[in-house]
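Board notes (copied after class):
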Amino acid sequence: MLLLSLLAAAIAPGIALLAYFYWKDRYDVEPLPIVIRLFLAGALTVLPVMVIQRALTLWLGESPFAFSFLISAGVEEFIKWFVLYHIIYNHTEFDEPYDGIVYATSVSLGFATLENVLYAFNEPVTFGMLLARALLPVSGHALFGVFMGYSMGKAKFSAGKRVPLLLAAAFFLPFLAHGAFDLIQQTVPPEWLWVMVPFMLLLWLRGMINVNRANSVSPFRMIKREEG
């Protein structure tokens, strides 16, 4: 019973956040099978990411900066970007800018959820610790997905020289946010970790601005208005 409770506590935050961003799509909700497939694809990236991170740790050492920006954020966000671009970017169901956010958060939360499950079963944890992870790493991954998906959604519906710049931004924006997130955790003493609260609030604020902007330029917006 305890194991099932831990498993549920580890999985629930990722599912809840994915449902939240999925239903924020105001005009054309994405096919659930594709969203689930991308969530599972994100989970499957955990093993190769762990292997690459282990090799980089042996090569680069464990300095806070190297860990935060190269080993953690660099590897994780690049793999998510790679999966997102090669699986869904050219898919016919990617038909409005907000879709980038739905698909990117699916990949990102798939990764974060399996990572959370492994943490729950490999470390001595309490439900309080899992709650803290839900509020920090798991929601952090969701927001990194929002930043990635927003830029990728803009790239999908842009043309010319803007496209490669926006695709690059789809990696670099979540990479910088993720690296800063990890660097704070690596360098700030535990009694000062409250500074993460305003940082997370800023991430959420930026993320919700992206959500609203992506919805506001949906090509289905006028269709919904006419139907209403």
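Comment from the instructor: The radius of gyration is 18 Å. The chain has a mean pLDDT of 89.
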